[in-house]
Design brief:
The chain has about 675 residues and is α/β, with parallel strands linked by helices. It folds into three domains: about 5-355, Aldolase class I (TIM Barrel); about 390-475 and about 635-665, Rossmann fold (3-Layer(aba) Sandwich), CATH 3.40.50.720; about 485-620, FAD/NAD(P)-binding domain (3-Layer(bba) Sandwich). The chain has 22 helices and 27 strands. Strands 3-4-6-9-10-11-12-13 form an eight-stranded parallel barrel, surrounded by six helices. A five-stranded parallel beta sheet has the order 16-15-14-17-27, sandwiched between helices. Helix 10 links the parallel strand 12 and strand 13 (about 315-320). Helix 1 runs parallel beside helix 2 and helix 2 packs across helix 3. The protein is globular. The structure holds adenosine-5'-diphosphate (ADP) and iron/sulfur cluster. Iron/sulfur cluster binds near residues 350 and 364.
């Protein structure tokens, strides 16, 4: 197949200063938690995207000096020449496929933890604080300003030596000293670097000019700038500083990379920004103020939406972080007329969560993400089958679907049995909840692939027992039968069933998603802390219920801090009128009321009356078929449980488990062999 001519415009080259891209697909800088500790993995991760057709591939933020050290997060590092060879790995990998390599030089200022370097962090003004960090930062002197300029120039020269084509100056995500200088909240200086916007932008102008002078003859200089912080007058606003900065610097950089700040707004989840191109209302004006090319993001996965951005004059280059993570081959698939093969990002921010946990990247849709070097996995290639034997996959949730698809890609004959009338398991159910419709993409991508494959037989409405499976005499059996939510309250807080709960007609998320009747006054007890507690609360409000959400944790949906959603979740529930009670656990329940008490003081107790009690605490694996089969394990060459049936976890973990099982089917008794590759620190 070849590409539809209406997409030709996406494959036009774009000149950026002294360089030219091969097309308009631009992987903007994004974190992947590999960075300076895992340079081979970093290079392999970016290589695959270059192979997949992206015209430009950028690093994550790269520390340019130890006084801006973001430990424990693993981003890039270019402190001195010792770091150059690591970067060479990445630029060589990217250049192999004819893509350009960009580096995002970052001086994080007051945001720097400096936990490794132990140098006092610096900010435009004294006494600035960041987050709940118990230390503060100090005001930069003129000497510090000269140094920050010098460090940018030195890093830019090293970047060129390392082979980069695009060098970034960075003022976004609230993570850069240059953005801090722009903000009156952080910049209260009375010298020529504070006060008016012309003064507050001075350091940025100087650094852009310095860097351009140093390497601008061969490298393009990009400026990444947050035009709005979505904080109204308490932050930078597109209508004020956004326009002013672009007006003042319009022709200085070779490329404008524009977005909204902070990271939670730039990488908004689908729950809070369901539409592609959601940044357009903020960034659309930029092109009218500069003749230089503009790149921007907006979780673009549809080729039509991308074309629209170009044709309407919003963007010149289609920026993508998450869409390139979910599908590193997105450009090639458009080029080859394989639109239905695109693995669309679902906007869940599991990738972001990994970075916030200082762990290597993972992706719900793309289980090979971060595993390119470690396990030699490729998102589009898999090793062929080693026999012509058949495999039975029981259960077609995320784990079973991924496993069946990849086994079929390897060439095995696959039978996929699903008890329900539709495929998808939990993502089919959960995608019905408010804001989670994109989760159905996990099913849709895999179902679309599987139905085209002659070597997969799908049996829906087929609940298999162990007896049924023995009769099939299939040598390899993979159980992906999922899990069920517990009714008894056992979870993180309660090790044993909640007092009195046996006598209550408790509802679980499974019941709610299956359409059970819910009473008028609802008490939701959330000891899961991810998205189900808050999405079910929202669903209940939509249905006109009065909702009280109780959690033993100190925050509502605390794990969503990692996905950058927690504040938005809390604000939404608050706006919906949900009563939220934190740091309280159930003491006892009966048919009408619950007694809840402070987790720190059982004497501080109160009663809450309800018509329905929804318990969201933990899950039990649905592994009875698997355990029955295990009794006669010797009848099978392979018998394993994967996904939630093995251990309840995220959708991302289930997809990964399905992928791992398909890759390792023929690995013998030691299923986890071979051990993955690790990067060992040099001992020179
Ligand atoms: P995971 O996230 O691990 O993929 P899910 O709960 O999403 O788990 O999916 C499990 C799927 O397995 C569900 O669609 C369920 O209907 C199906 N299933 C459970 N037991 C059986 C069985 N005995 N035979 C066939 N399908 C089953
Ligand atoms: Fe998209 Fe989720 Fe993958 Fe991140 S983890 S790229 S948000 S699908």
């Amino acid at each position: 197949m070849s590409r539809d001519s209406k997409y030709d415009i996406l494959f036009e080259p774009v000149q950026i200063g002294p360089i030219t891209t091969k097309n308009r697909f631009y992987q903007v800088p994004h974190c992947n938690g590999l960075g300076h500790a895992r340079p081979r993995a970093e290079a392999a991760n970016r290589r695959v995207k270059a192979e997949g057709g992206w015209g430009v591939i950028c690093t994550q933020e790269v520390e340019i000096h130890p006084s801006s050290d973001v430990s424990p997060f693993l981003e890039g590092r270019l402190w001195d020449n010792l770091d150059i060879p690591q970067h060479r790995l990445m630029t060589d990998a990217v250049h192999e496929s004819g893509a350009l390599a960009g580096i995002e030089l970052a001086y994080t200022g007051l945001h720097a933890s400096n936990l490794y370097s132990r140098i006092a962090p610096m900010a435009p003004s004294d006494g600035m604080v960041y987050g709940n960090n118990p230390s503060q930062s100090r005001e930069m002197t003129k000497r510090d300003i000269r140094n920050v300029r010098k460090w940018h120039v030195e890093a830019a020269k090293r970047s060129r030596e390392a082979g980069y084509d695009i060098v970034y100056v960075y003022a976004s995500h609230d993570l850069s000293v240059l953005q801090h200088f722009l903000k009156p909240q952080y910049n209260q200086r009375s010298d020529e670097y504070g006060g008016s916007i012309e003064n507050r932008v001075r350091l940025t102008r100087e650094i852009l000019t310095d860097v351009k002078e140093a390497v601008g003859d061969t490298c393009a200089i990009a400026f990444r700038f947050a035009v709005d912080e979505l904080r109204g007058p308490d932050g930078l606003q597109a209508e004020c500083e956004g326009r002013d900065v672009i007006g003042l610097l319009a022709e200085i950089p070779d490329l404008w990379d524009v977005n909204i700040s902070d990271w939670s707004n730039d990488s908004a989840t689908a729950r809070f920004e369901p539409n592609e191109g959601f940044q357009e209302p903020y960034t659309a004006f930029v092109k009218s103020m500069t003749s230089k090319p503009v790149v921007g993001v907006g979780r673009f996965t549809s080729a039509d939406a991308m074309v629209s951005q170009i044709r309407r004059g919003i963007l010149d280059l289609i920026g993508a972080a998450r869409p390139s993570i979910a599908d590193p081959y997105l450009p090639n698939k458009i080029d080859e007329g394989r639109i239905e093969d695109i693995r669309e990002c679902i906007g869940c921010n599991i990738c972001v969560a990994q970075d916030n946990l200082a762990a290597p990247i993972r992706c719900t849709q793309n289980p090979t993400q971060g595993e390119e070097w470690k396990r030699d996995w490729h998102p589009e290639k898999i090793q062929p089958a080693t026999s012509n034997e058949s495999v039975l996959v029981v259960g077609a949730g995320p784990a079973g679907l991924e496993c069946a698809m990849q086994l079929a890609n390897r060439g095995y004959e696959v039978t996929l049995a699903e008890a329900g009338d539709e495929l998808g398991g939990r993502v089919s159910r959960e995608s019905q909840l408010p804001g989670l419709s994109s989760y159905a993409r996990v099913r849709d991508y895999r179902e679309t692939q599987i139905v085209q494959k002659p070597n997969v037989q799908i049996y829906k409405g087929n609940r298999l027992s162990a007896e049924d499976i023995f009769k099939l005499e299939i040598p390899h059996v993979i159980c992906a039968t999922g899990s069920s939510w517990r009714r008894d309250g056992v979870g993180r807080h309660h090790a044993f069933a909640v007092d009195g709960i046996d006598a209550v007609a408790v509802l679980t998320p499974d019941d709610v998603m299956a359409g059970s009747e819910i009473g008028q006054r609802v008490l939701i007890y959330d000891d899961d802390h991810y998205y189900l507690g808050n999405t079910i609360a929202e669903l209940c409000v939509q249905r006109g219920k009065q909702v009280c959400l109780v959690t033993p944790d100190s925050l509502i949906s605390s794990w969503t801090e990692y996905t950058l959603e927690q504040e938005k979740v809390h604000a939404r529930l608050s706006a919906l009128g949900v009563e939220m009670i934190t740091l309280h656990a159930l003491q006892s329940v009966n048919a009408e009321r619950a007694s809840i008490a402070s987790v720190y003081d059982a004497n501080q107790a109160r009663d809450i009356e309800y018509d329905s009690l929804i318990m969201i605490t933990s899950r039990t694996p649905d592994n009875s078929v698997y355990t029955d089969l295990l009794a006669q394990e010797n009848k099978f060459k392979t018998l394993i449980a994967i996904g939630d049936c093995e251990v309840p976890s995220t959708v991302a973990a289930a997809v990964y488990a399905g992928h791992l099982a398909a890759r390792n089917l023929d690995s013998g008794e030691d299923f986890y062999a071979p051990l993955f590759r690790r990067e060992m620190p040099g001992l020179d």
